Every structure is written in structure tokens, then in C-alpha cells.
Amino acid sequence: MKKILSIGGSDTSGGGGIEADIKTFERYDEFNVVAIENIVTMNPNNWQVAQYSMPTEIFSAQLQTTLSIPLAGIKVGMISDINNFNILIDYLETANFGWLLVDPVMATKLTIAHDKTIDLTTYKKKLLSKADIVTPNVLEAALLTDVQSINSVSEMKEAAKKIYDYGVKNVVIKSGNRFADGLATDLLYDGTNFEVFQNEIIKTDYNHGAGCTFSAAILANMVKNKSISASVKEAKEFTFQAVANAIQLNQFVGHVWQGDNHYETT
Length: 266
Ligand SMILES: Nc1ncnc2c1ncn2[C@@H]1O[C@H](COP(=O)(O)OP(=O)(O)O)[C@@H](O)[C@H]1O
Ligand SMILES: Cc1ncc(COP(=O)(O)O)c(C=O)c1O
Description:
The chain has 266 residues and is α/β, with parallel strands linked by helices. The chain has helices at 17-27, 56-66, 82-94, 120-127, 138-145, 153-164, 210-222, 228-244, and strands spanning 3-11, 31-42, 49-53, 71-76, 97-102, 133-134, 171-174, 183-189, 194-200, 247-248, 254-255. It has one domain: UDP-N-acetylmuramoyl-L-alanine:D-glutamate ligase, CATH 3.40.1190. Strands 3-2-1-4-5-6 form a six-stranded mixed β-sheet. It has a three-stranded antiparallel β-sheet with strand order 7-8-9. Strands 10-11 form a two-stranded antiparallel sheet. Helix 5 crosses helix 6. Bound molecules: adenosine-5'-diphosphate and pyridoxal-5'-phosphate (PLP). Adenosine-5'-diphosphate binds next to strand 8, helix 7 and helix 8.
């Protein structure tokens, strides 16, 4: 069984972050080990989000723990603190692992005030440049490429080229449910070719966790030695089902569900 390390935030509501990763990797029969960099909580009255960064000593101890484990891949999600970020970069330089996927979680479906001390130039230079694959949504891709917004496949292509130039080997940009054409488009760019993956947008408000699930599923396929293109294709189908099976959590949100079945929806 392959072992994969997730580094990112713990979502107390259970939909995104490390919790989505664990559920997804289990579906692919892969063993997920974790290093939690931050914890996200929600106000029960209005769902306002708070984020608590892990003290550096604890984050570092988690990463050290994983040095004893042969890792087929590492998935990096939400990173909130510059000191933890630097510890992560040092760790990536010493650890032995297969693929590195970076999901640059900056613009999520929840409004999270991120620690602005990680500037994007540093983020690109130190982290993205090491990634085999990076999976921003269109909002994150716009932030990374310093454009106002991305509203079409041709604008996704422009952004993918720029992100590739940061040293990333493969770029996947996701439009999710944001484009008016009714299509959920994912664009893959490997430095030579563009490939477009599309399906219809499921009309639902419940897709929290879709991004984490999608990127975990891509990595889950990659460590099974599938091509990047086949990995993205399969992950898209997996995530589509997870969105189709989403559950309402409370009056504020609904979360994707990676399991085979769910027996009740409220
Ligand atoms: N309503 C939806 N219908 C179909 N696919 C969706 C829907 N919402 C998200 N997806 C898919 O889930 C994956 C994650 O996309 P997205 O939700 O944009 O990520 P993020 O959580 O990073 O914003 C993509 O493959 C996207 O096409
Ligand atoms: C810790 C953490 N990581 C990642 C995400 C991203 O979630 P999504 O997959 O909906 O983009 C969230 C969303 O709340 C989160 O709390």
C-alpha cells in the first residue's frame, strides 16, 4: 500500500483540508499520514471562519515523524504561517518522496483571512518551483499570475503558461462552478500541450471540499503510476461523483462525499 503525506489545514467541519484528503486516499486504498499546519474553526451562529496556525515546534515535530516513512507522494494544501512555510521548505529539501502536488489554497469557498506574511513571490520561488503538479482554482490562478480575473478557457491557458514558468512541471486550473457556460472546466498544461476536461456543472450549493478531493484524487492516481493526463481525467470523474453525492452539513454549508453511498441527506 502506498503512503502519502498530506500537509495542510484541518477543517473542523470535516469537508475540506486534511479531512477531505484522508477520505479520498482511503477510497484509493492508499495510506494517508498527516502534518497539520493550521486548524480552521467556524462560528456556529454565522459560520465565520477562524484559522489557528500550529506552533512551529509542533508542525516541525510532525514533519520529522514522517522522515521514517517511505512516501510515494506529498500533497501540500493550506499553509498559514511564514515560519511554518520555511520549515516546510527545509523539510522538502531533506525528505525522500515521490511526487509533490501543491494545491495553493488561498481562495476557498469559505472566507478565510490568510496570514499575509507569505508573499506570493516567495511562495512561487520556494514552493511552486519544486512541484510536479499544482492545482489552483481560477481565483487562485489569477492571484498567482497577477491578473484581475480569469473568465474563459483562453484566459486559463494564459495563466497556465505563466504558472508553468515558475518552474512547475504540470499546471491544472479549475473553473469549478464559476463560469457562465454551464461547464466545469479543468485545464491541464504540461509545458507543451493543453488538455481540457469538462463536464456539466451540477446545480448545487454543496461543493465544499471539492478542490481538496480533486487534488488528492489526482495524486492518488499518480502514485499508481498513471500518466498525469489519465490521473486528472479519473480524478475529475471521482470528484464529480463526490459533488453529486454531497450532503448538507447545517444551514450554512454542504460538503462533498467521497463514499459509495449516503443514506440520508440531512
Ligand atoms: N458544481 C459542480 N459541478 C461539477 N463539478 C464541480 C462542481 N464544483 C466543483 N466541481 C469540480 O470539483 C473540482 C474542484 O474544483 P473547484 O470547486 O473549483 O476547486 P476549489 O475547491 O479549489 O475552488 C473540479 O474538477 C471541478 O470541476
Ligand atoms: C483547512 C482547509 N483546507 C482547504 C480548504 C479548501 O476547501 P475546498 O476543497 O472547498 O476548496 C478548506 C476549506 O474550508 C479548509 O478549511
